[in-house]
Amino acid sequence: QAAQQYFYAPPRNLIGYRDYHAANALMKQKCQQGMSRQSFNIIPKIIELDHFIRGGKNRQLPIYEAHPEVCLTQLWSAQQSGIQSKHTSMGISQRKTLIMNYAQNAVEFWPAAEPKETQKIDDMLDAMLLAIAAATASYNCFGGVPNDFDEENLPMRICYPEISLPAQVKRRYE
Predict the structure, then answer these.
(1) 171: pLDDT strictly greater than 70
(2) CA 76 to CA 68: how far, in whole Å?
(3) Cβ-based neighbours of 96, under 8 Å, separated by 6 or more
(4) Residue 23 and residue 8: Cα distance in Å, rounded?
(5) DSSP letter, residue 7
(6) For a pLDDT cut of 90, what percent of the chain falls above it?
(7) Phi and psi at residue 143, in whole multiples of 5°?
(8) What's the distance, CA 119 to chain centroid?
(9) Tell me, what's the pLDDT at 112?
(10) DSSP alpha helices (H): ranges in 8-163?
(11) Are 155 and 149 in contact (CB under 8 A)?
(12) How many angstroms separate the CA atoms of 131 and 69, rounded?
């Protein structure tokens, strides 16, 4: 089930492809796994960020990549099992509880975060988890996996907060 929560970004040598089927076939050949439509559809944003980062003085700016499910797992802590899918009422409740533990004023956003035609509650909760991760990054309280560098010597890692949820909050879901 964890594999369904993540999608892999395309390698640098595939970001120039404009045809999904060609990019997917080459990724299967080079990486032994296919490319999701979600990955393919974010290629224009990857290119935009890549140009920004590699553009002179911007190369020195700290840019951190995070994934909401990785942040959730770290915040909930590796010792706690039972994180439910964000598409269930229990999963939504767990995420709201966790977010409130780190950002008490997030309650102001709940009415606006109810499902509407153009937004989903799980997307709003993902955004709030990433905001918490960004706040911890400003204090250098984060880790990263795999913590490698690409051929342009740019860091390649998914960052996550190195803080965990207090035990009293975890006990509510045991």
Answers:
(1) no
(2) 12
(3) 110, 125
(4) 13
(5) -
(6) 5
(7) -120, 180
(8) 17
(9) 54
(10) 20-31, 37-41, 43-54, 68-76, 89-102, 121-137
(11) yes
(12) 13
